[in-house]
Amino acid sequence: MSESSSMTVTVTPPEQRHERVRPASQSWFIARLNPVSRFICPLIMSLPLFTTLDVVSASIQFVLSVILLWIGGINPLVVLRRTWPVWIAAVGSFVTIALYGRTSGTVHFAWAAIVISDGSLYLAVATFLRVAAIAVPSVIFVLGLDPTDLADGLVQILHLPSRFVYGALAGIRMFTLLQEDWRALGLSRRSRGLGDGNPIRRVCSQAFALLVLSIRRATKLATAMEARGFGASDTRTIARVSKLHAIDWVSYAIALIIPAIAVGTAVVTGYWNLPLTSN
Amino acid sequence: MNDSAEFRKSAPVGVEAHDWGWRHSTRKDFALRHVDLTIRPGERVLLLGASGAGKSTFMAAMAGVLGSDDEGVREGTLTIGGVDANEARGKAGLVLQDPDAQIILERAGDDVAFACENLGVPKDETWQRVRAALDIVGLESLELTHSTRHLSGGQRQRLALAGVLAMRPGLLLLDEPTANLDPPGVREVHDAVKHVVESTGQTMVVVEHHIDVWLDLVDRVVVLGAAGDSHEGGVLADGTPDEVFSTMGDVLAEGGSWVPGRAIPSFPPKSESEAKGANGDAEESDVVLSTRNLAFGRNGIALGEHVNLDFERGRIYALMGPNGAGKSTLALTLAGLLEPVAGKVLIAPELAPKPDSREPFHWKSRELLGRIGMVFQEPEHQFAANTVRDEVAIGPKSMGKSDDEAYGIADRLLERLRLSRFAAGNPYTLSGGEKRRLSVASMLAAAPRVLVMDEPTFGQDFRTWSQMVELIAGIRDQGCTVIMVTHDEPLVQSLGATPIHFGVSETAAGNADEGSAR
Q: Do A131 and A66 lie in a common domain?
């Protein structure tokens, strides 16, 4: 290979390979909310739904949420697409409850413990709608949430201890590194002839190696944080102010009104039933 | 960079150690003991010593991050600017070796502001300091919201430097800040530090094996280490660079420093005819591994396309190019660990496990053994056994050899790589250089015909570097092909390796400027 001195490999410039910056949220409304509100709003909205297991309240809540998200700037189709894991969970709970839920009314099918009846189908539909009504807005609210901004909010608005919150925040950043570690561990095991055997054993041994690596990384990170005065004194100042604005209060109001309408309609129409007390 | 006047407010501080010592609570011997050292404000000190001489311990002590009393035993006094080092947070700014470990927050500006928040600096002043610190390390074009994830190694180290400068420290502590960087990164960080110390007059203490890098900036050299038979480290030498290098040159080289002006060992390849004679099977083709129209990358996205390379038996190839260009990705693809995005990696027909199966990625894991081995950059990624001896025996055992044979191979390799005395020890407890040798030994045990190595000499001191070079030359001389990813020019020269350069494609090199690339 006499021409070897001129051997080259041409690659794309590394600067062009970065993933695009993702927006805080696709909704202009949600993007302007304080991160803490983005956690609390879905919580306020979902709590009333736990008092009832019926189709009316869940459907109304789901439809209202989707319409309001649309007004907030996210197309319903986008909502459905971005929440696909929710739908898998919802279908899963539908099937389970249809097969094993409390039997009442006409029995359509029975085999061993599986009994599909009118009652179990009704409960299954109600559960399916409830999972969707609770989880879809929640996912949309927290999607694209910036962990740093959330940490600021947790410390400044909810007054959680800053040492704990920022320590955890720095730890979360390590997950990217640990993902790379995990990949490298897997590749190295293949290269060492250990990649063929029982996958469960392989994962266990790899998990142990990852634990050792993560402790090492955590120790280094802790030193770097300590070297920058972290944990040195109680008088920590804040460089980024996290406040609740008018828009946050509007979001709380909406988060109260939606379930009020949904559950209220269920009560008025007589569909409301408390699953734990009714027999 | 007109903010240096801002930084003059923080006066340089000195260091005073009197009979100072530290013993880690799990160790028998003091890491350092009876240290008497005075560093005057504004001095620039290069701190040298062999691995384990206590350099990093002393740096951590000055930075006040050595740990509390239950983590070790302290003796004597150590003051920074007249204050006990543990109480002097913010007076000393410590930059460490690993660029990954020093970025704390997601956005560049927040990361630099982190120290100010911890020290209780008011908000407005914090952001002034952040901007000034970024400017002074040459990151003036970096936006405050720029993600820290997509910075190069050199940029990350400069960001870490800015992060400690925002504390207005007065004493800058640099613990091998360039050991993990490619040559452009080393220059970036050197130039940034030069600008900082020249415009602020801060006291600086730097630990580095590559003395050359910092020689133009230091006015004093301190050597730490254990004298004679003692197990306790202390100050071995102290003086101007000229004094110390003329009297201590041999000791320093032995201890792992790259002493300026000393020759590096050379292991050129044997002449062509000799190499052939040693492995005189005339029938065998010389090309053991080749790529045909290969596109390599991750997740189906090609980093480089139409790569046609031939790797010959008994030669060493060096994949060279900037950080992040995709050298490691190509190496993993050649080693049969990543699937080619397009095209093929082909092993010589006589080495294939089955005649119709020449593509390493489609082999079983076991079929890679004896054919292609990969030594990872982080030895810890590779370790899979509880003892050093078992670690090396894994390969032969997986190839179906009996325990006796496998341990025989392991013992011979450990002997050859001077690791025998650790045979019963845990791989994780070895030193950096030993771990590196073990990771090579464990791959060699399977007698691969092609050995791919990712940065085999990364961050090593001169002694472990020399051992590694000798080892790689030995692997080549046994007829094995070595493909290594490296930035290390001396390594390539010493081995007479064939460089394969990574170039950036012309068509798309438009907005390659740092910071403005958004």
A: yes
The verdict on residue A232 lying in a domain is no
Reported as a single tens digit per residue, the pLDDT across B147-189 is: 888 788 889 999 999 999 999 999 999 999 988 888 888 999 9
With 70 as the cut, is the pLDDT of residue B276 above it? no
Structural domain total, chain A: 2
The CATH topology of domain B286-503 is Rossmann fold (3.40.50)
Residue range B4-254 forms a domain whose CATH class is: alpha beta
- Structure pTM? 0.84
CB-CB neighbors (< 8 A) of B395 in chain A:
192-193
A221 and B498 within 8 Å at the Cβ level: the answer is no
CA distance B365 to chain A (A): 5
Domain that holds residue A207: 158-227
- In a domain, residue A1? The reply is no
Residues of B in contact with A235 (CB under 8 A): 120
**How far lies B444's CA from each of A135, A150, A189, B5, B359, in Å?**
53, 49, 15, 57, 21
ipTM over 0.95: no
Contact B428, B388 (CB under 8 A): no
Cβ separation A236–B378 shorter than 8 A = no
Residues of chain A in contact with residue B121, where contact means CB-CB under 8 angstroms, are 237
Reference B163, options B213, B117, B217; nearest CA is B117
A77 touches B: beta carbon within 8 Å: no
Interface test with B, best of A6, A11, A18 (most B CBs within 10 A): A11
- The residue assigned the tokens 């080289």 is B253
Residues A38 and A82 in one domain: yes
Please name every residue paired with B73 in a beta bridge, in sequence order, or none if there are none: B23
